[in-house]
Structure formats: C-alpha cells, structure tokens
Amino acid sequence: MSKQTDMLKTLPLFCDLPEQQVLLLASHSHIRKCERGTFLFLHGDEIRNFKILCRGTVQLFRETPDGHEVTSDILIAGDCINAEEVIALQTTHLTSARIVDDAQVLEVPIRWMREHLADFDRLAPRLLQSLSERLHGARMEAEHRSTMSATQMVACYLQGLCVLYDFDPNGFELPYSKTLIASRLRMELATFSRTLQKLKEVGISVNGNHVAFTNLNQAGHFVCDNCSMAEDCATHRALSQMAQPDNLRITS
C-alpha cells in the first residue's frame, strides 16, 4: 500500500488530502504498468475504473466510420484520464484510450469512487475544475478552427507544448510523433508537414523533431492577435514572460 500512498501524494488531484483519506484511497486503488501501444479501454467498453496517469502519455481518440482515428486529447502525468465518467451517468466509455509511451496508471474502481466521492470534500471541486478546463479548451479549439489558418493553429499548438512541458523556447524536441500531433489537430499528416515548413516565416524553426522559437514576438503576434481568448490564455502569459526584454517580447 505504501507504493500507492506515495504515488497518490505526487498527483495534483490528491496531493494535499488528509493522511487518512490518502490511506483510504490507497487501499482501494492499484497501480497498473502499461507498455506503449496498450489500450486502456475502447469506445463502448464498460467503465470499470477511474484512471489517473502517473507517468507517460495517453492518447484519447475516436474512430470514424471510415477507419480514421480522431484524437480528442493527449494526456500527460498528473492528468485524470476519465474525470467526467466519475460524475456522468453513462456506463460505457465514449472514447478509446491508448498508451503513447510506457506508462503507469492509478486505477480506482468507478463504482466505489462514485459512492464515496462525497467523503473526500476536496475531490469533487477539483474534478469539476478539470472538466471546466477541458470545456474551455474545447471552446478555444472551436474558435481557432473557425478563425485561424492551419499555420496559426500549428504555431499555437507548439507554443502550448513549450509551456506545458516547460521547454526552452530556444530549442526542444517534440514530445510526441508528428502523426499523433497531426491527428490531434485534425490534419492529414501531409498537410501538417507542409504547414511546419511555413512556420519559419513567422518566427518558428522546425527541423525534423527539433523546434526553436527564433522570434517569440513575431510568433506570438501571428497567433495571439487572432485569438479572442489571448488575454485569458496561460500559454500567452507564460511566453510573454519567457521573452527577453529586447525586441523578442510578446505584447498584446
């Protein structure tokens, strides 16, 4: 149980729960090690567990009638994989989940979690906050698809990766394959590849899997000047702080 307890304390959802509550959760959870390519669940499978990603990366996706995969989200360590399913009434998964690289997943029986959620006074608000953040992200994506070009959407996504992983904007390696990123952005791989070549003109250099922001100011204006949510965007604020005080600073 000590392994589960230690793991729970590292996760944002549980990190500051009272010791007694952590022990209770640990006694009703287990840690699952998953290799790359493992399916955690498939669309239509019965919901059995509440899942939190402890290490690794997970792809959430649906398959279209013609066999194409549409990625709805890419999750990293600390993310709840199916927070909405603790609160919702459905009994089967609405998406599929696949391990992108070797991972560890903490699992709590969904029935037990639903029955005892009220016993953990801090969990329900955090789950709702997680759902709110995903809803906000979905609204932002919908706006971007209707107002931005493919180049702007890719530039925005790369800015988000830089901040999410706390990468050095002067140079970092893509954390996922280009195929996965293209799926996440609802693009054909060929379209995504052509778009990457255009980014050099707006202050972003992409060479293979290596990305470098050669001009944060230019890249920021190219994306954020076309987004109504820029002033409320954590990525925009973070990159503004990263920029140097010379002509590279991002301004609104």
Automatic annotation (TrEMBL):
| Record domain Cyclic nucleotide-binding: where | 13-134
What is the name of the protein in this document? cAMP-binding domain of CRP or a regulatory subunit of cAMP-dependent protein kinases
List, alphabetically, the InterPro entries matched: cNMP-bd_dom, cNMP-bd_dom_sf, RmlC-like_jellyroll, WH-like_DNA-bd_sf, WH_DNA-bd_sf
What domain of life is recorded for the organism? Bacteria
The answer on whether this UniProt entry bears the keyword Transferase reads yes
- Report the source organism: Asticcacaulis taihuensis
**UniProt keyword list:** Kinase, Transferase
MF terms per GO, please? kinase activity
